[in-house]
């Protein structure tokens, strides 16, 4: 029996931040703030980053994997199309990822920002299709958890 050509997976990550919703949301909306936690600081060489945060807008990231990664020097890419933005409430986007110019996944990602007193509950629902040679849903979930940890550190700074 052969493996399926596409693996479909959905995962949900819920994360609490000790910061008000407007501050957490702004970390996704402001290009300079997002670049600090989402793009920089992972030990990769960023070759291109653009963020046009609005409904119908896009985000483009290109980088080479860092020396301490499993694939040092590998060219990676992420392309996002923003479908729905409700300030301080919700962000919905489609994302494709590529390695060495070959697309290996497509996903619909929903981020919900829920107030909890002076804090925020962030709920990320990731619905993905992973193609042959992809990192797979387990690695993608691990990647998002790491990003949310970096976001927490950036909010503390």
Please report which band the strand proportion falls in: under 5%, 5-15%, 15-25%, 25-35%, 35-45% or over 45%.
Answer: over 45%
Principal-axes shape call: globular
By CATH, the architecture is named 2-Layer Sandwich
Mean pLDDT: 93
Per DSSP E runs of 2 or more residues, the count of β-strands stands at 7
Please report the distance between the alpha carbons of the first and last residues.
51 Å
* Count of helical regions: 3
Low-confidence stretches at least 5 residues in length (pLDDT < 50)?
A: none
**Mind telling me the CATH class?**
Alpha Beta
Counting structural domains, the number is: 1
Query: What can be said about the biggest beta sheet?
Result: 7 strands, antiparallel
Give the CATH topology.
Alpha-D-Glucose-1,6-Bisphosphate, Chain A, domain 4
What series of H and E elements makes up the topology?
EHHEEEEEEH
Fourth CATH level, the homologous superfamily: START domain
Helical content (DSSP H or I, runs of 4+): 10-25%
Strand order of the largest sheet: 1-7-6-5-4-3-2
Alpha carbon gyration radius = 16 Å
**Class from secondary-structure proportions:** alpha+beta
Describe what this molecule looks like in 3D.
The chain has 3 helices and 7 strands; from the N terminus they run βααββββββα. The protein is of the alpha+beta class. The termini are far apart. The chain has a single domain (6-156), classed as Alpha-D-Glucose-1,6-Bisphosphate, Chain A, domain 4 (2-Layer Sandwich), CATH 3.30.530. The protein has a 7-stranded antiparallel sheet with strand order 1-7-6-5-4-3-2, with helices on one face. Helix 1 (21-29) packs across helix 2 and helix 2 (31-39) crosses helix 3. Strand 2 and strand 3 (58-64) form a beta hairpin.
